From TrEMBL:
Keywords: Signal. Gene3D superfamilies: 2.40.160.20. Residues 1-33 form the signal peptide. This is Porin family protein.
Length: 225
């Protein structure tokens, strides 16, 4: 006589398989953001306005300083935790008595190339370090009620070491901020002759300093795909 013994499938074994599968899925989701072949599209925006009031001989004047800057970035992970990116920047500022058309206005256009290496800290937080090369074209005008309106144009080149913090919120979204920037910058400026005058000048400068060629944006938002 043959005797068959049936052993029921235990819930413990089934639970182990489920936990293993869930852990594998979680790791794949968390690690997807920094893996080779991932693209990252980023946008940064920064705006600020400050005002101060002065009184002289009974005349009250309100000076305004408005700054707006925008940054569009595309990055590609050439290998796990290593990203190359290109970014385009635009900034504008107005300072002076804007309501009386007596102020100076500056605009800057820039392009930059960056290399970033990411290092895990805890959970979805990563530190990054790398380098950035950049070029910027600026134009500054002094607008007032007088006929003389000088215009200053400039070219700026920068090579900087950068470092910061990234938070990979989910599989497709991340926040990033630059906390450290130090390097070398070269600037060349020239002023065109003002109306009724032949005055003009050219100026070049080179410096080593902390802080980048452009003021860093507060943070950037990235969409990864």
């Amino acid at each position: 006589m043959n005797v068959f013994i049936f052993r029921p499938h235990t819930n413990k074994t089934h639970m182990k398989k489920q936990l293993f599968t869930a852990a594998a899925v979680l790791l794949s989701v968390c690690g997807y953001a920094q893996t080779k072949g991932t693209s990252a599209l980023g946008l940064g925006v920064n705006t600020s306005t400050s005002k101060y009031v002065t009184a002289e001989n009974g005349v009250i004047s309100e000076n305004t300083n408005k700054i707006s800057s925008f940054n569009l970035n595309y990055g590609f992970f050439i290998k796990d935790n290593t990203k190359l990116s290109v970014d385009f920047s635009y900034g504008q500022s107005k300072q002076g008595l804007v309501e009386n058309d007596n102020y100076n206005e500056a605009k800057i256009y820039g392009i930059g190339l960056s290399y970033q290496q990411y290092f895990p800290l805890t959970g979805k937080f990563y530190a990054f370090a790398g380098g950035r090369g950049s070029y910027g074209k600026s134009k500054q005008e002094y607008l007032n009620n007088a006929t003389d309106r000088p215009e200053i144009t400039g070219d700026a080149f920068g090579l900087n070491a950068i470092g910061g913090l990234s938070w990979f919120v989910s599989r497709h979204w991340a926040l990033e901020t630059t906390l450290l920037s130090a390097g070398a910058n070269y600037t060349k400026q020239s002023q065109t002759a003002v109306s009724g005058s032949s005055a003009s000048y050219k100026n070049t400068s080179f410096d080593l300093k902390s802080g980048g060629l452009f003021d860093e944006l507060g943070f950037k938002v990235y969409f990864m795909f």
